[in-house]
Amino acid sequence: MSRIIPPEIAPYESLIDDILRAGSAKADEVEVYLEAGRSLSLELKQAVVGEASIAEVWGIGIRVITDGRIGSSSTMSPGRWEACLDAAVASARLADRQDWDGLPSPAPLAACDEPYDPAVIPDVALAQDLIARTLAGAEGAEADVIGGSASLSSGAGAIANSHGIFYSHRGTNAGVSLEMINGTSTGYEYDSKARLGDIDPEEVGKKAAFFADFWAGADDVPSAEADVVFAPTALASLLSAIFFPALSGRNVHAGRSYFAGKLGEACLDPALHVIDDPHHGDHATPWDDDGVVTRPLELVRDGTVAGFAYDLKTAYRYGAKTTGNAVRGGAGGAPGIGFHNLTVEGPAGGVDDGRAVICHGLIGAHTANTITGDFSVELSNASYVEDGEYTAPIRSAMLGGNLFAMLADIAGTSEETRTVGRITLPSVRFNNLHIIGK
Amino acid sequence: MRFAEPRYYDIRALEGSGTQIEIDNGVIESAGSAFSDTAVIRALGEKGWGTVVVDNFSALGDAAVRRKVDEALTLARATGEDVALAEVTSSVLPVPSVAEDPRNVSLEEKTEILLGIERAAALDGIVNTRARYIETAATIRFENSEGTAFAYEIVRSGYSVLAVAGRDGQMQMGRESEHGITGLNIRHKEAKGREAAERALLLLDARPARGGKMTAILDPELGGVFAHEAIGHASEGDLVKEGASVVKDKIGCAIGSPVLNVTDDPTMPEFGFMPVDDEGTAVQRTEIIRNGVLDNFLHDRQTLAAVGGGIAGHARAQGGYPPVVRMSNTFIENGDATLEELLEACGDGILLKGSRGGQVDPGRGVFQFNAEYGFLVEGGEMTAMVRDVSLSGDILTTLHNITMVAGDRTMSQGYCGKAGQSVPVSDGSPHLLLEHAVIGGGQS
Question: Which parts of A281-334 are beta strand (E)?
Fold first, then answer.
């Protein structure tokens, strides 16, 4: 297999080979994961730039497997790879033995988006332009800017193992954010994409201003039964805390998931579909962080639990097949089960019908009971809407419920979707929820 | 090394190792170490900050470091904020000695001890147990253009244990954790594993809390989260400076009831201890609220110069990030009441215990946090156990509603996230009586 190696990785090609060779003498199998990149960010302090930063990130993670015992270590220093390899070998001695059928060998890769844009350069002038465009979007607002940022990053990653895999890829990211305040009404908006042309700084400015200004006139509301529309940003925070971890094969087999024992069970809204597509989107990759070839994974089909996500280690342990869902947080961490580009679809329409409460953010989504799905959060930028028109902004209210019960009875979803992190989802309406007012 | 050109620069390097052991349902999933070597170089140009973060820093020679300072200065030219730095004293406290240095205990032995804690949680009815040990050893080296230079080493370690109870499709969890800086703390902690398991089992029979406005008692752990989320964040000088804090113009004002005293103390030998802050400023105990009056903001050098009304020495950074104003060990001071007196004064209400974390919007002045569990209080007596109970409110009204403070403060440890960075902190409180509390729960 020919190697086309990004310039960030090329200087370390022989280092990777050295580690694989030395590691093969000390362990049954060796894997090297390398990450190198450069990012620039400008931070707004009120409406002026107060800090300009460059970060140069470099790291390798080494994983060794001997007789079903897995060990790993990482370092930020190329010169210390031998100590890092020794630490990985020592850690493998301590780990319990598990069923293990080997790291992957080279395999044909599927056609796949490359989340890379040569226009994303960690360049000060480009970042200044993004800042100016974001602030321009907020022009005319009553609210003041309290902070914000523009960031541009470009980097590359590689994974290689002792069975001959050597995959590498490039990646970029461009992002802006803006935070505003009008009295004690705060507004926050952001956008972050792999390609420069995909972010909309003016819209970020406009939205942050709208959130701060419109909610400056907010009133308290009494407790009430209400139909609640979760904007993508609000729902994504609950799904990330509760729903997606429950679809991890590891949590399922360990007895920590609501979906344990529910594979094939129709326990969700019959119109709910959830798919993880590793080949299309800003986190597209033809291989996962175990070096396994990726493929689309259907998690929920017509409200039925259709599949769980696996990495190599969990799959071998429980006699399942890896779904190519190994994800790392960076070179410093061992791979774990994660997702690539998730898409959530529900019953179409109905979101804007009649009277409802729309909510754009939740405070405290991470405090939910991640196993049962019970949560209680404070709403952020919530407002009464009539046929889709914002009428009365709500100053403060709490909402409690059970996410799994809600997902079994979805009232409607919007046509428009938004990508929040790795999740693309519409606004979703749930009827008859209880709001605790003041 | 000393360079002439920027009006100020500093270099903060972190070199160290992290050790982690993870056990899941009796299986040692991983046990090993990883290595860090990173530095943050900041320079002040005519206006604001230029910052360069470099991994593999120890491999750089003097000339390369000089180039990084120049690069930071070049970046600084892209800024437009007028930055002044307050004059501060620099000194470094001794790092408290450790009873048993965790680095002298083999990974094998630590793994065996952790297994003991995890096994203790495997009671009948428990479907999953998990335990984790985390140890970080870091040497911090700092120097700035004013001639301040120091190095120190600090070792942090601790564990957590989680138990999940299951019955008839219902699941509940219990969790215990302890982290510190005074040495290995995992020996003879099997009881903590059992506690987590027993609580998870009890929660299977607990009913969901009924939401609404009521009188609440907060236990020391949840009271600590309250001190951190509802008071600490809003008093951070950077938020005050940018206009993002609801208490920004409240120094000298009574923002809470006269029984309320809140302190942030980086000198306390707790998980949030630091011998000196991450800009080289001497640390000191900072009284945020005294008898209900807002006395001090937490500051770094820039925010002290810009805002005043507080104490510098609260700049903190995760390795590889520039410092920002952060809390360290934050707590509500002891009062003179007892828990029994609080229960009696509560009458009918709720006692909230433990924490699943919290969050605050300091600009709006709204906070939310979740208790692990609670008990109904009826006629001054604790009765039925309840689950999934949360508390939210407005900072400025809630602080006036703390009407009684007990004298039984304890501290809990955790990590606090801000500006994309996570730093070790502790927080604590005695039992508190909170009137007109807005309680959320699964049922209404």
Answer: 297-301, 304-305, 326-327
Nearest CA among B71, B389, B352 for reference residue B222 = B352
Q: Dihedral, CA atoms, A245, A250, A254, A256, nearest 10 degrees?
A: 0
Report the chain B residue with the minimal C-alpha distance to residue A333: B34
CATH number at residue B165: 3.30.2290.10
Give the count of beta carbons closer than 10 Å to the beta carbon of residue B17: 18
CB contacts of B214 in chain A (<8 Å) are: none
Sign of the CA dihedral running A234, A236, A241, A247: positive
CB neighbour class for A231 (10 Å; exposed up to 12, middle 13-18, buried from 19): buried
Interface membership of A380 toward B (CB under 8 Å):
yes
pTM score, whole prediction = 0.94
Shortest CA gap B412–chain A (Å)? 17
With bands split at pLDDT 50, 70 and 90, how would you rate the model's confidence at B442? low
Distance CA(B237)–CA(A145), nearest Å, equals 17
Average pLDDT over residues A26-45: 97
Q: Which residues from B are below 8 Å from A75, CB to CB?
A: 34-35, 37
Which region, left, alpha or beta, applies to residue A207 given φ > 0 means left and ψ of -120 to 50 means alpha? alpha
Size of interface A-B (CB pairs under 8 A): 261
Does B150 lie in the same domain as B15? Answer: yes
pLDDT single digits (tens) A106-144: 999 999 999 999 999 999 999 999 999 999 999 999 999
ipTM rounded to 2 decimals: 0.91
Same domain, residue pair B107 and B43:
yes
For the domain A10-204, what is the CATH code?
A: 3.30.2290.10
The reply to whether B58 falls in a domain is: yes
Between the CA of residue B10 and those of A426, B2, B41, what are the distances in Å? 46, 10, 6
Query: Per the structure block, which two tokens stand in for A338?
Result: 């994660």
